[in-house]
Amino acid sequence: MTTIILKPHKEESLKRFHPWVFSGAIARVVLDAAHEASAPQEGELVRVESSNGDILGVGHWQIGSIAVRILEFGVADLPQDYWHQRIRAAYRVRLSLGLLNSNNNTFRLIHGEGDFVPGLIIDVYADTAVIQAHSVGIHYCREAIAEAVVAEVPQVKNVYYKSDDTLPFKADISGMKVGYLVESGKPKVESEEFWSKENGLEFRIDWLRGQKTGFFIDQRENRALVERYASGKEVLNMFCYTGGFSLYALRGGAKHVDSVDVSQKAIDLVNANVAHNFPKATNHTSVCADAFEYLSAQKTAGRTFDLIILDPPAFAKHRDAVKNALRGYQRINAKAIEMIRPGGVLFTFSCSQAVDKEAFRLAVFSAAASVGRKVRILHQLHQPQDHPINIYHPEGEYLKGLVLYIE
Fold this sequence. Notes:
Distance between the termini: 63 Å
Shape: globular
Number of helices: 10
CATH architecture of the largest domain: 3-Layer(aba) Sandwich
CATH class of the largest domain: Alpha Beta
Largest sheet: 7 strands, mixed
């Protein structure tokens, strides 16, 4: 195995179990005798040692500022059943959280660094697991991971691989294909009969064409909170995607719910989800429109709401875009606050990892100040328990939310 030797004193973060080795910390690379290339290949398993020869761990080599993502600390190699160990441990956590029951079969099984497996995301929908690789090393291990998931998670019969939009753009991977790694032959997402259950509501999940793995599981607990506030309210769900917040608001007794998204495919799924769960509902309207244009038009028409949900896609996917993202958050929140009736509530979120919670809170504060409304913070929200944060990797805290009371 190729060995990565660190510069003196650069091992301290690894001794604190932070899973990233930055390229600037590397003194030299020692290739093993059987190595055919002149440098490590992206995705290759490498051993990391300190400058004085201490074994620090094993991880995947990759091109970029993060050169190694550590999979296991303090070992010279991975055990043969590594993937079974990690999947088994993650599944036990989900069982302990009570996420698998008669009302819920939708959950995140592996959350990257939060489950000590950098670069790997696995979401489970009923009998199907969807794998996303965020590193080339995970991509090369996809078959072994799929086999371990089916072996360790009893409800999973199908495993779908979807990493066409998540692998590093610099990676030169020929023949990368999405598709099933394991198939049971039973109806899957291609069938109109496929539904996945979350807290008693059923959703059609489209991992073939949808965003991410097909659904945003990370808002499960926050959707349940919306349900508590929705009774008798006129609700606007912006950036609604497939209507998660809308369905919870309808179940909570909302007077009317408007669901808005720029994607017609998303709106089609919203309509299917509403019809399936509330076949007699007459208090829901879906609109395919740009969020900013829609809010401007509704303001011009003098329309207001009791409860607005803002859950936009990531405005900043890297640190260079943070300044523009904060302006975007300020602008969209100002528009929403203007349109909330006195005594109304705003649920507002950022899923941009590059925007920390203090910066997001400041953007929302600036929005409120620009409108001149009195605003109270009722809740500070974050990602749910099946999206855990590795205590040694605080960067894993990406979802931020505020619930605001508007006078």
